Amino acid sequence: MVNKYTIPIDSSYGSAFGDNATVNNYYSDGREEFVDIPLEDLNLRFNDSPQIKSDILHKLDQEKLLVLGGNLGVSKNELALQLAFLIADGNDICIKQWRRTSSQQLINIELELQQTDSPTVFVFTKIEPQDIGSGSGLSKAHKTAKFFQKHWVVISTDRSFTSWNLGDSAREFFPNWSLEDIFYSLDDLPQGDRTEYEDEYIRELFSESEQREQLLALGLSFFNGCLEDQLFAALEQVVLKAWRQRDPSLRALDYDDFKQLKENYFQFYSDKDLYGTASYKFKFVKIQNYPIDIRSIKILSENRLRLFKLSWDSHRRQIINALDVLAELIRESAVEENYFYPEKWELYGDQQRRDDLRRVISKTFSDIGLISNSSLRAVQGILSRLAINENAEIRSVAARTIARWYEPDNRYESKFFITTQNLYDFTLGKEARNLEISEEWLEIEKESKYSLVLNALNVDKAQHQKNKILGIIIWLFQSFQRIFKLSEDKKIKKNTYYIEGKALDAQDYMGATVAVTIGDAIYDYSGTETLSEEFYNWLEELAASRLRLVHHYFAYHTLYWVVPFHLKEERLRNILNEIIQKHTEVFYPSNFLSFAYSFNHAIARSLAHAYKYPENHLLVRKTLNEWYKEYTRGSNTDDSLLKTVLLSYGIIQYEEQSRFSVKLVFSRIAKALKKYPSVREAAVFAVCSLTRRYFYKIEFQLQDLLFNLNREEQQKVVKQLTDIYLEERLSLQGNAEDIDYRTIRINERVYQLWRNPENRPLTDIEHTMNEWAKLENKVAPQQTAIRALVSFAGALREKVEHQ
């Protein structure tokens, strides 16, 4: 069993998929993803900042959306907040800053603009093209902002203009500015912000410094981007475990050691956009976000990579030894016990620190791997050890490192492909070894049969006759056995596809890492027109794997990013069709529905992800319609295509105003449930999922469908109705004199109690179920309503904690 799944899975129906699954709500409305920034905080923050030119503010007010990209030489995140402050200051305007809550988070800027009533400045920092649907999503957000004219959007990104795959007209909101274009005076800016250092400067800095300062420069470069206290804690580990063994005279570090390098090589930047919050739910204290005034380190310009290249020949062993310590920090960051040790707080104390540490070290691994072939080999050794770790968060660092080496038609592209090939070659060894074992058993079986024939020639005729009669009986028995098992042949064939084993091993984890790497590389360059031949070959290679874990990550990560950005390509649609019909087995058994971890569910989820991008709406509908027709035409006897269609219908998030409505798909699901018994389980899943999310839209259709569900299936619907009740019950409010001082706590949710239960107002779902219970000549809805009301009454009594 996988140690930890970090793939977000739709949780709209049922509980977590598997015992060790980490489930994220895929259909979050986005409200909790924003932090309100008080104007008072920003006023103190930018009181002494350089004055921004009025032309910049006019540009933002005119376009309503502005992107700060490329290498400006200043903190783009700070600049974005300063622009937001200048827009909001003195006006009744809110400032909301977006914060990332998951690695596969999709930002719907258009929806935020539409659903926010009061004038607001939205600030998005460190945005990647895929976060908002590549360049097309950015252009649509710009048009929407200009249409409404009451909101502003400021975006900072480390990606260049060309990386967003935008047209020349996008320069209106994605300008190519220098510092002189932005500020009236540069006198107040740190000197390093406006200075580009060339190789000669780095050479002088490094060659004229003492050994200790050279190692400090390397150490700072390793942890560029870490928080200040985290930097010192991590660098101390490198000095203690790697460098002091070679030079015992190295003493502990302190701020004085950085005087020679500060202002010339690095600077500390104040990360005032950081907000701290508690991780656990308090019983009485209301959790709030508070700004944290803490500094982070930033190497000036491109000095870091230049320093790595310059020092590789002279300090190679120090760098290689340090890489082992960096890898150890990554592994330690995934050990939960370390989160609670006070002495390890600086390194791993909260999720943001752990994420930052992994991101920074991954970037260091990538940069060092670019120096030369010898450095690549050194980094590959480190990555291979991370790639076989049981923990998915550790493996993701290796995947992220390798994915950075890919860029279409650049000189580092070969490093990406040779590394992925080398790693996956190790994984293929497991399949090859299993094949050799199978062939060996065939030879043994063949020799055994041959020996039996030779022995039979030596028996007497009477014995030969007895053997002949016995052989006929055995043949007849086996023939009848084959006849009765014809219906099971397909199942047997499916169950023998994957290589079985009692436990996952290094080769399984390595293959999973490669699958994530391919997905990450495609994610980074989703703006390209078509998927390259090399990546198509990789998709087919991963699809042909006989390892369950490889298929799991290929299905739930790689395809998750391939499908939204390349569904328009016929070749990809054909590959998906082939995968669905060829690989029908479940990856891992679950106490949930049998297709929980399967290509059916994974591809359905990927199509639902693709549908969140408006440009894919028509294409997703067309693809599902074609698969539905292909099944109904009887061109194949496998029901996997129709299962995938029904699962997609159950997972897709439907828009309010669309011809492709939840009522339409519900009627299709109901028709399939009645007509095609082999896909009943998938149809029930879709019915339950839509019930949970769109009950009040499909209420009357559901009443009619309940007649076609058995008692067990109706109980699954009751479970969804109970979840709706708990959601509505959570938001019930009453008068102070009616509310009991006690509360009930279930799964970190706190429910109010009424002193007199009869005075508690009913939820909407309770009103509806009471109406259902009174229906005449509709036995199934009546029974379901009664069971639901009973379930409601007992829901708060299960696993409660009185406060």
Fraction in beta strands: 5-15%
Structural class determined from secondary elements: alpha/beta
Mean pLDDT: 80
Question: Nearest-angstrom radius of gyration?
Answer: 31 Å
Range of helix content: 40-55%
How many alpha or pi helices? 30
Low-confidence stretches: 1-31, 191-198, 448-454, 482-494, 799-803
Please give the alpha-carbon distance between the first and last residues. Answer: 37 Å
Question: Any chance you could write out the topology, listing elements then pairs?
Answer:
Elements: E1 34-36, H1 39-45, H2 54-63, E2 65-68, H3 76-88, E3 94-98, H4 109-115, E4 120-124, H5 134-148, E5 152-156, H6 179-182, H7 199-207, H8 211-222, H9 228-246, E6 266-270, E7 274-276, E8 290-292, E9 295-299, H10 303-311, H11 316-332, H12 345-348, H13 351-369, H14 373-387, H15 392-403, H16 413-457, H17 461-484, H18 486-495, H19 506-524, H20 533-543, H21 548-566, H22 570-582, H23 599-611, H24 617-632, H25 640-651, H26 662-675, H27 680-705, H28 711-730, E10 739-746, E11 749-754, H29 764-773, H30 779-795, E12 801-802
Parallel strand pairs: 2-5, 3-4, 4-5
Antiparallel strand pairs: 1-3, 6-9, 7-8, 10-11, 10-12
Helix pairs in contact: 4-5, 7-10, 9-11, 11-13, 11-14, 13-14, 13-15, 14-15, 15-19, 16-19, 19-21, 21-23, 23-25, 24-25, 25-27, 26-27, 27-28, 28-30, 29-30
